[in-house]
Amino acid sequence: MFIEIKGVGLPNRGAELMLIGVMKEISAKHPDAKFVLLPDTPFSERNKHEVYQKSYLIIKGLDLSFLGNLIPKRIRRRFGLIVESEIDVVIDASGFAYSDQWGHEKAYLRSAKHIKRWKENNKKVIFMPQAFGPFKNLKLRDHMKVILQHADLIFARDKVSLEHMKELKVATDNLYEAPDFSNLLKGRLPENFKSTAKDICFITNSKMLEKGGDIEADNYKPFMVNLISRAQELGYNPYLLLHEGEKDLQLAKDINMQLKNPVELIQTVDALEVKGIIGTAKLVVSSRFHGLVSALSQGVPVIATGWSHKYKMLLDDYGCGDYLLSSNNSNAAGILEEMLNEKKYSEIKNKIVQASEIEKSKSKDTISKVLKAL
Asked: What strands lie across the sheet with 265-266, from one edge to the other?
């Protein structure tokens, strides 16, 4: 069984967690399953997961992927190359790609253009839990209706996303609400990593500058500098943890340069190590969605900033929606200090731990539905 996984843009560690999660759960039930990715991510990133590569070649807008069929199968296998006709299952683990913020072309090219043909060729098509909407663009609405009509399973990651899908008014029994399933994964620590009870993990996101609007673009860096500085004044050990690529790395470096006392910048190419590090922190201040999932699913309190509804919905699921802050919040440092009060911290942590068990139970139900569909 060849399973193509779409939407996992490596080296995004959140996307990598979803890739690992899909592979782990399906392989446990179907050990013969083989997984396939498009060659649009670095080879080094794909190679460490031992996935196959799909035949994919676009030149000046012309799709020449069919040329892979001209290569004898025994040669294709030698190079780990899989053609479209060999794919049995398509799993979309995008996270957030289908909305006005990303545009109608992305939805069309990723799924709507192909899904009728996929189903005609008896492929299973599953959309793992992800954020959807809004869909005000008429072309995007049409594309999403096609997807809803033909997918075997679609999981919306929160109530708002589910409502955006229902507003398309497509009669279907394939749509469910389910949390991000990476909450089931256990992290691991890098060799020689040493944590302390005073660690506070800061995770940046360049999309706060690109998609968060003028307020976030103008205030985000000062916001992070302010919180890191306050954490230092309170006697804690803040550090910056890289969660994705060059843009986040540069942003973290820019923030560090503005600090009176620069902090450690931790980089690892292993998504499970990222989650493991997050799990050791006293508190996580994150603008990356999966940085928040990794913290909350391990019972670690958070302060969040975000640029879409998915952040608020996630924090609400864990009973801590009040800790989603705008970058222009003048009391952010005070909120940080309040959260670190021993009694308050214990209350928040207990609430998160209880919610985490519920969310993990929901994810197990999601996996059961997926395995049944296969």
From this structure: 265-266, 237-241, 199-203, 283-286, 302-304
**Same domain? 156 vs 72:** yes
Please indicate, yes or no, whether residues 173 and 252 belong to a single structural domain of this protein. Answer: no
Would residue 192 count as lying in a domain?
A: no
**Lowest-pLDDT choice from 30-34, 60-64, 74-78, 302-306:** 60-64
Which structure tokens are listed for 102?
A: 């990303």
Residue 169 lies in a domain: yes
**In angstroms, what CA-CA distances link 33 with 3, 88, 89, 147?**
7, 10, 10, 25
Q: In terms of domains, do 109 and 243 share one?
A: no
CATH number of 332's domain: 3.40.50.2000
On the question of pLDDT at 273 being above 90, the answer is: yes
Q: Which amino acid is at 235?
A: G
Residues 111 and 149 in one domain: yes
| Confidence label for 42 from pLDDT (cuts 50, 70 and 90) | confident
d(CA 282, CA 286): 13
How many domains is the chain partitioned into structurally?
2
Residue 203 contacts residue 316 (beta carbons within 8 Å): no
Q: What is the pLDDT of residue 14?
A: 87
Do 234 and 115 reside in the same domain of the chain?
Answer: no
Q: Which domain holds residue 18?
A: 2-185+360-373
pTM here?
A: 0.90
β-bridge mates for residue 8, sequence order? none
Q: Do residues 233 and 160 both lie within one domain? A: no
Q: What pLDDT, on the 0 to 100 scale, is given for residue 110?
A: 94
Cα(205)–Cα(218) distance, integer angstroms: 14
Write out the E strands in the chain: 2-6, 34-37, 52-54, 58-59, 62-63, 81-82, 89-92, 96-98, 124-132, 153-156, 175-177, 199-203, 237-241, 265-266, 283-286, 302-304
The answer, yes or no, to whether residue 280 has pLDDT greater than 90, is yes
| Residue 84, token pair as written in the block | 């479209």
Give me the phi and psi of 36, to 5 degrees please: -130, 135
pLDDT-derived band of residue 341, with 50, 70 and 90 as boundaries? Answer: very high
Residue 191 lies in a domain: no
